[in-house]
Design a protein that fits this description.
Structural class of chain B: alpha/beta
Number of strands of chain B: 5
CATH topology of the largest domain in chain B: Rossmann fold
Number of domains of chain B: 2
Shape of chain A: globular
Mean pLDDT of chain B: 90
Mean pLDDT of chain A: 95
Shape of chain B: globular
CATH class of chain A: Alpha Beta
Largest sheet of chain B: 5 strands, parallel
Helix content of chain B: 55-70%
Largest sheet of chain A: 5 strands, parallel
CATH superfamily of the largest domain in chain B: Cobalamin-binding domain
Structural class of chain A: alpha/beta
CATH topology of chain A: TIM Barrel
CATH class of the largest domain in chain B: Alpha Beta
Number of helices of chain B: 9
Strand content of chain A: 5-15%
Helix content of chain A: 40-55%
Radius of gyration of chain A: 20 Å
Distance between the termini of chain A: 34 Å
Largest interface: A-B, 19 and 15 residues
Strand content of chain B: 5-15%
Oligomer: heterodimer
Number of strands of chain A: 9
Distance between the termini of chain B: 33 Å
CATH architecture of chain A: Alpha-Beta Barrel
Low-confidence stretches of chain B: none
Radius of gyration of chain B: 17 Å
């Protein structure tokens, strides 16, 4: 009997029977285990997951005492952006947005980020960002990060000076593509260190490298080198590394950090190099498959994240939102899906933060 | 003296290891040892390419290596192809190209090479080929097969336009059409009315022969 109301990975509401949900959970954990070569969830954990999906309430939550840290990245944009830009169209400044998150939304940390949200375009306006950060930091109690994406894509043509691997590789120009990525990575590292050092001058509490490795292994390589350099010269500044996806694309294929090949890494491997680089928090991403159900996606996300937590020595603040962490790819993620994914990741994967 | 099995294994390994130099060496060794080139292409290099594809799917081999593997395969097959006995009668004529807006050439290049190996006369139009160019070539060479490749969802619609334009030009009934490329599926082929979809080079050859009633399954 199909009586459990849940969703597909694209947000569509569907009804599933208990046995269908059970099968989906099993298939989801199996998929993660197979891809990541990690352990599947145990039967008791799958039962816990089933209970979360059996709950008839629209919103689910954890018991008192099980709460975890709730952080936001560039949340200010979600307030000030219009609806076509993932926002709700409320005319607020970035400072007001940060204060709303701290005082009304009970965010445990918040972040200042520029609308371009990438280190490269922030570089020429860093003086203004320093002022804005200082003002915001003076008015907030919660830890305030400065966040931006490494975004190696901005260093490739047409946005940057280096050859674009996406053009070069299909032409068979492997050597040129690899050289371009290495050069771009060098510049990106320098920019990330420069921007961070300027923010350090205004007592910045932390840098959030968001959407890391979006452009593949060279993007990750540039970020890890930047993190290592920042930790060496500005050790008191906290660093969070959040990922773009669950898998490091091998656009270069032969980049190593501390002897480990970056291409092909899954979250439980990513966290180890992030730790070695000196980061303080890791934000894994598990991608949502739109043609699979939420039980499948959540079981898969929990399997990956649970193992990442198990091997990590630093706090894990998993990404949970549109298209990640088991949540459907939906502009405004439905509350039933975000709360179920969050509860599962907290109770079973034992994450430190969302 | 190198054994045939050793030669086949070395050929496959050279492709998996993305070692073009070794692939070329194996091709020369094949000729020196007098081993059947077709056997080495099928059981050695093609096997290696299939293995490389699987490793890529599993995230254990990456795009640059896959590209080098493909280049190694094409270089080695080119050497062996030159000594294959010329077939008195060509199997068929194929026009092949990557659809307009798409610059991905490697997979299509392998398909073209394998079609040649199996006796087709191949007119490889290259990449970023306009529908107009396809139509002109079909008029000029009167092929049996028209194959188009697309690697991106943004360019795959070009294959649909090609089907429509062949129809408009009154050429559709005189040719069999085939589609391929990373984003292409049998479902897409059915949807646009293409006669066949080939997932990889060997399947493309098999389907091309099947379309011409030359099945050797």
């Amino acid at each position: 009997m199909a009586n459990i109301l849940t969703r597909m990975g694209d947000g569509e509401r569907v009804q599933m029977s208990v046995s269908e949900v059970r099968d989906a959970l099993l298939a989801g954990t199996h998929d993660a285990a197979q891809k990541g070569k990690i352990p599947e969830l145990g039967s008791d954990e799958l039962e816990q997951l089933l209970e979360i999906f059996l709950d008839k309430n629209r919103i689910v939550g954890v018991a008192p005492g099980e709460e975890v840290v709730l952080t936001h990245d560039i949340g200010t944009l979600r307030l000030m952006g219009d609806q076509a830009n993932s926002g709700v169209g409320i005319p607020l400044s970035r400072l007001q947005g940060i204060l709303v998150h701290e005082r009304a939304f009970a965010a445990d940390t918040m972040e200042l980020g520029h609308i371009d949200y990438s280190f490269k375009p922030v570089k020429p306006i860093i003086s203004m960002e320093m002022q804005e950060y200082e003002t915001a930091a003076m008015m907030t109690i919660v830890p305030l990060f400065y966040g931006a994406m490494p975004n190696l894509g901005t260093y490739y043509r047409p946005d940057g000076p280096f050859g674009n691997p996406s053009d070069l590789l299909p032409q068979g120009k492997v050597r040129e593509a690899r050289e371009a990525q290495l050069e771009a990575a060098g510049h990106a590292t320098r920019d990330m260190v420069y921007v961070s050092s300027k923010l350090h001058e205004v007592a910045c509490e932390g840098i959030n490298f968001d959407t890391t490795a979006a452009a593949g292994d060279a993007d990750f390589y540039a970020t890890l080198n930047a993190v290592a350099e920042i930790k060496k010269t500005m050790p008191e500044m906290a660093i969070e590394v959040g990922m773009a996806g669950e898998f490091i694309l091998g656009m270069h294929g032969e980049l190593f950090f501390n002897g480990q090949r970056l291409a092909g890494m899954y979250p439980h491997q990513q966290v180890k190099v992030v730790e070695e680089a000196g980061a303080d928090i890791f934000g894994p991403v598990i991608n949502t498959n739109t043609s699979r159900s939420m039980p499948w996606n959540v079981a898969r996300a929990v399997t990956f994240v649970k193992h990442t937590v198990a091997v990590s020595s630093i706090p894990i603040h998993v990404n949970v939102g549109m298209g990640v962490g088991g949540v459907p790819v939906f502009e405004t993620p439905p509350i039933d899906s975000t709360t179920r994914a969050s509860k599962a990741l907290v109770q079973i994967a034992k994450v430190d933060g969302l | 003296m190198v054994s045939v099995q050793e030669l086949l294994d070395r050929a496959a390994r050279a492709i998996v290891n993305a070692d073009t130099e070794e692939a070329v060496n194996v091709a020369h060794l094949t000729l020196e040892a007098g081993v059947d080139p077709l056997l080495v292409i099928n059981e050695g290099f093609s096997r290696g390419m299939a293995e490389a594809g699987e490793l890529f799917e599993r995230g254990e081999l990456f795009l640059p290596e896959l590209i080098i593997s493909s280049e190694g395969m094409v270089s080695a097959v080119r050497i062996l192809e030159a000594v294959l006995p010329k077939q008195e009668k060509k199997v068929g004529v194929a026009v092949i190209g990557t659809i307009e807006g798409d610059i991905h050439d490697i997979g299509k290049g392998i398909v073209a090479t394998m079609l040649r190996v199996y006796g087709f006369e191949v007119h490889d139009l290259g990449r970023d080929v306009s529908v107009k160019k396809f139509i002109e070539t079909v008029r000029a060479v009167k092929p049996d097969i028209v194959g188009s490749s697309a690697l991106m969802t943004t360019t795959q619609t070009g294959q649909k336009i090609l089907e429509q334009e062949l129809q408009k030009a009154g050429l559709r009934d005189s040719v069999k059409t085939m589609v391929g490329g990373a984003v292409i599926t049998q479902r897409w082929a059915n949807k646009i009315g293409a006669d066949a979809y080939g997932e990889n080079a060997m399947e493309a050859v098999a389907k091309a022969k099947e379309l011409l009633g030359l099945t050797t399954k």
